[in-house]
Structure prediction request, 201 residues.
Amino acid sequence: MDKTALLVIDVQNDFCPGGALAVADGDAVVGAINAMLADYPVRVFTQDWHPAGHGSFASSHPGKAAFETTEMPYGTQMLWPDHCVQGTKGADFHPDLRTDPADLIIRKGANPAIDSYSAFFENDRTTPTGLEGYLRTRGVERLVLTGLATDFCVAYSALDAARLGFAVEVRLDACRAIDLEGSLGAALDQMRAAGVALAGA
Prediction:
């Protein structure tokens, strides 16, 4: 039995061109991901799902601007433009992404006090999303990651998956990065150091 799962990270309108936190060329991942779906027995999609006024939004911190940082109880937090607000068009999956094959959709970032980049844990690094338990019960041992953005939610998910003992591959051809002040290079170095395979570049 093939015990590999495809993990599709945050391919949502707000992360695609025209969105509130657009990743350059972000919509280019859609065709690549759609073409991969039939190849995996387990397919999990994640969806950034913030309440209005989320603590990671710059608009929630008077005097702060997007892409500045602030200190939260769980550590340093990058402040973002308001994005992927629950129930808005920006939070919807890209309209061309085939979501019907998803076995599970994990919504993350719903706690207004804690951001959540990783598909496995909120940014306090301890509150689980439940994804690990789901994958274990499905017998998954290996993960292939795709989606947005390479240097934030994809990288955090890949690093957590490796730390949890999964074999992990990131398909760079099916990811796009924000690359904020060298964040892509740093994320790639961290993933390599953690034993994550980087493919499709």
